[in-house]
Design a protein that fits this description.
This protein has 477 residues and is of the alpha+beta class. Among the domains are: 160 residues, Elastase, domain 1 (Roll); 118 residues, Immunoglobulins (Immunoglobulin-like, Sandwich), CATH 2.60.40.10. The chain contains nine helices and 19 strands. The longest helix is centred in the first third of the chain and has 30 residues. It is elongated and about 120 Å long. 38% of the residues are buried. About 5% of the residues have low confidence.
């Protein structure tokens, strides 16, 4: 009897040990390549979710076919650098379990790896465009002027900390935007100036929002983006104060809603993209918008700021490319929808052929000051003013210049009558230039369309009256 009891106990112990081993094996398998991440970001989706990391090479690091994640080991830098930062692969797990709920640095790296691969698969599976490069991602954990950015020179993405202490490596929207920027740059780099800078931003934001199925950039992402601050010193044109980055479902129009920062101006284009998405559905719109980007390089020279194409495409180039894609892939069946959307946005089929809007002669510049800081920022956009309303033009010029007068010419190079102006001059302490504010009224007799500004001034150095270069502006009703 005792022997039978002993055997029974022995069998139960063996069964228990086997069961524990089986549970351990199953748990180990279930946690292999597992990670805890934020589905969107810590504000919108505060609960961590368990996911399986894809495309890992199996060596225990956050390194795979399409992404490699590193932690920076550099000390803090006063400015952002384009050089590759000193770094290390900070995350290693021998059993390939990447769940780090209590370690923000490691959690950030796992979060970046997961979302980089998610948007890669979105491009590859939904859009049939695979960006088959293992992009390096650095979780820097230090303040950066731009807390999340793609660096084309190194083909990497860097995530720092914002001035408010927000960590963009934990925000899927930021990760998706910067990866989308890398994809677009690989297809065709767009120069960071004029309307092309806004086009680049629009594409980055659109694909991020489309994947998240949400036109709103969440507060967690938007808080570290610069916004127009309370104006001090000299007034900004009202155009600089309209709207803020973060909403693709908007009613912004070209050209009157162009703003000093490309983030704000980009919403004109990304808003048109979202209009297409609402009208045609995500699948068709996403594909059409991506294919339109590929077609930009095939457009005639007049759709770029100069024949060398060095300054990038106009907004009208996007309209032209999307219409061409629809004609090729859908037989033009969406032509009326596309036309209605871009006309509502004010984007013409044929672009305005304006010159650089900040250059008046060799020494007179116009721009915004102060914007988010006390730095004079050159205007990169076309000047836009409403007929029958007041306008402002702010800038700087050498201290030797005087008798500054602003003129308005129509498309036939004739002076516009009743164009009244008032000029205010301000000497800048310890500087070799002075600031000016030109306030003016666009008379009702002016015609809509492209006109030009020009300055008359006295060069105190030579004693001669001079005329500056003329630059284009657009008058709208």
């Amino acid at each position: 009897m005792k022997k039978a009891i002993f055997i029974l106990i022995f069998i139960l112990v063996c069964i228990t040990i086997a069961a524990c081993l089986l549970v351990s094996i199953i748990a180990s398998r279930n946690n292999k390549d597992a990670a805890l991440v934020y589905e969107v970001n810590p504000v919108k989706t505060p609960e961590l979710i368990k996911v399986k990391l894809q495309h890992l090479d199996g060596n225990g690091y956050l390194k795979g076919k399409y992404a490699e994640v590193y932690l920076s080991t550099e000390s803090e830098l006063p400015i952002d650098s384009v050089f590759e930062p000193d770094s290390e692969m900070d995350v290693y797990s021998e059993d390939r379990d990447f769940r780090f709920p209590g370690d923000e640095a490691k959690l950030s790296q796992a979060n970046v790896y997961y979302h980089i691969n998610r948007i890669h698969d979105y491009f590859a599976d939904s859009l049939r465009h695979s960006f088959n490069k293992a992009i390096k991602c650095y979780v820097l954990h230090k303040p950066l002027h731009v807390p999340a950015r793609y660096v084309p020179l190194q083909n990497d993405i860097r995530f720092g900390i914002s001035s408010e202490g927000i960590n963009p490596a934990l925000d899927s929207g930021c990760i998706y935007s910067e990866y989308s920027r890398a994809v677009m740059h690989d297809l065709m780099p767009l120069h960071d100036e004029y309307e092309s800078a806004a086009i680049s931003q629009a594409y980055a934001d659109y694909f991020s929002c489309s994947l998240l199925d949400d036109p709103q950039r969440e507060e967690y992402a938007a808080r570290f983006s610069k916004k127009t601050s309370r104006v001090k010193g000299f007034p900004l044109d009202e155009i600089a104060l309209r709207g803020s980055r973060g909403d693709l479902d908007n009613k912004k129009r070209y050209p009157e809603d162009l703003a000093p920062e490309e983030y704000d101006s980009s919403e004109i284009i990304s808003g048109a993209f979202w209009d297409l998405r609402k009208a045609l559905g995500r699948k068709i719109a996403d594909s059409m918008i991506l294919e339109a980007y590929k077609k930009l390089k095939d457009l005639p020279d007049e759709y770029f700021f100069d024949s060398s194409r060095a300054a990038g495409p106009y907004f009208s180039a996007i309209y032209k490319s999307i219409a061409a894609v629809d004609e090729e892939t859908h037989g033009g069946e969406n032509e009326k929808i596309i036309r209605r959307i871009f006309e509502r946005r004010g984007i013409p089929e044929e672009p305005y052929s304006y010159t650089a809007s900040y250059k008046f002669g060799s020494n007179i510049q116009i721009g915004w000051y102060p914007f988010n800081d006390d730095v004079f920022r050159q205007v990169r956009w076309l000047g836009v003013y409403r007929i029958g309303e007041k306008g402002r033009l702010f800038g700087r010029m050498p201290v030797t210049y005087g008798d500054l007068a602003l003129r308005l010419y129509d498309k036939d190079n004739e002076l516009v009558d009743n164009f009244s102006t008032r000029m205010k001059l301000f000497q800048v302490k310890d500087k070799d230039y002075k600031m000016f504010l030109a306030e003016f009224y666009i008379p009702g007799s002016a015609s809509s369309g492209e006109c030009r500004f020009q300055f008359d001034y006295l060069d105190g150095g030579t004693g001669e009256n001079q005329k500056s270069n003329a630059v284009s502006v657009i008058l709208v009703k």
